Amino acid sequence: MNEAPSSSRVIKAASVVGSATMVSRITGFVRDIFIAALLGAGPLAEIFVIAFRLPNLFRRLFAEGAFNAAFVPLFSERLEAEGLPAALEFAGRILSVLLAFLTAFTLLGMVFMPGLVLAIAQGFTADADKFDQAVHYARIAFPYLFFISLLSLFAGVLNATGRFLAAAFAPVLLNLVLIGAALLSLMTSGAPLDYLIWGVSLAGLVQFILVFGAARRAGLKAPLSRPRIAPDTRRFFALVVPGILAAGIGQINLLIGTSIATGQAGAAAWLYYADRLYQLPMGVVGVALAVALLPDLTRRIARADLAGAQSSQDLAVTLAMLLTLPAAFGLYVLAEPTVNVLFERGAFAPSDTTATAAGLRYFCFGLPAFILVRALQPSFFARQDTRSPMIDGAAGVAANIALSLALFAQMGHLAIALATSVAGWLTLFLMLVRLWRRDHWRPGLAIARALGVQCIAGLVMTAALGHVMQNWAIFSDFAALDLGARIGLLAGLVGLGAVIFGAVCFVGGALRDVRALRDPVRLHRRP
Fold first, then answer.
1. What local confidence, expressed as pLDDT, does residue 5 receive?
2. What pTM does this model have?
3. I need a surface site. Which of 44, 239, 513, 520 has the fewest CB within 10 A?
């Protein structure tokens, strides 16, 4: 007998993760407003981006991707079959090995930091002082990955047992610590880069304490033991290694792009700020759905409830696009005023606004693909298959590198954003083909109809907003208005866009299709 409809559980879990992630993104924007004002898009900003990029890459790979993909299915399987004590004992064995590995990896990383910086900032080699500063600050920030990787284990235990809030809220602490560091540098007239980079490592410790404490209070204690590679531990690492590539394709693409972009002055910083903007829907929608969907799919598949699993996947895809398409279309048409309002002050010049907005538009082309990849990966991970999405993602990475190198001389940093988007669509196409052939997920008529209406709604919204911006005189010199007026106009445009998109979806029946997908009786219609 089936348990309560999976759609309600997935939506509830995704709303918890999404709400916490929304708070994280909002505080992240405040953080980046300070960073843009203090560092602009010049050499100091580029050094910060490189020093922060490496440990932050591990945060995205572990906390939001590979670790969750490998650990949650194995932990859930042990939880279902043998109970909580056995599952926690398994977690303790993983923790023991992980602790030893991370200690060695962190120390080695700090010793060989010049090589790591060279790998992700090849353009810095033309300026020895800039390269040396990047190495110095990257060493200070690197311990962040030690804490955030340990955090990911306890976050996986919490997520697998239906507790999502603490792990989802942890990134907020990173933003709050860095905001505090920025304010402290302003109050003391100190070097802002020093305060910000030291704040990164401190934030890792604070985040770990939050999630570790939440697990302890819930009685989820993973007992430490002598590090050894038992069969289940070996199975975990066999899944996590390809999972790093599979779940972190977007970040790997961005890392490669950043390395190539360091050959153009300011490009690394422009891409960083553009990335921060399109990461809002990525985090609120894509990550939230992926984190919430994985435990549900794992339970369904373990119980051979394949119809329920496909119903959950249907709903996740439809909801993902219902929330992503207006964001993608809206960010595209409102790119310049959005960047202007958020970042153009202090050291961040109007030319930086233009360059960042142009990169953001190219990222918007790939945003639906990035989020659909996130929404579909749990179908593989729940079956303990991290190899297939790794292969599909590797093809995307290869395309990204080839396009970036081929177009960078002509397009500059825009080539990186375009190549990243193309790589996202290629990865999505390969994943869809693989899922279809294996009969793991085949979209039905309700999904096709809903996505069609949503795309039409996005185009109508874009046309309407573009018309308003081109024909209303007040927008002709938007940057000259005072901040309050710019915020009000931008908020008005966002609200108008939301109303138009929602109205077209309502008239076209897309909202009715979402409700139909929540009905477990109408599980999976195929064309």
1. 46
2. 0.71
3. 520
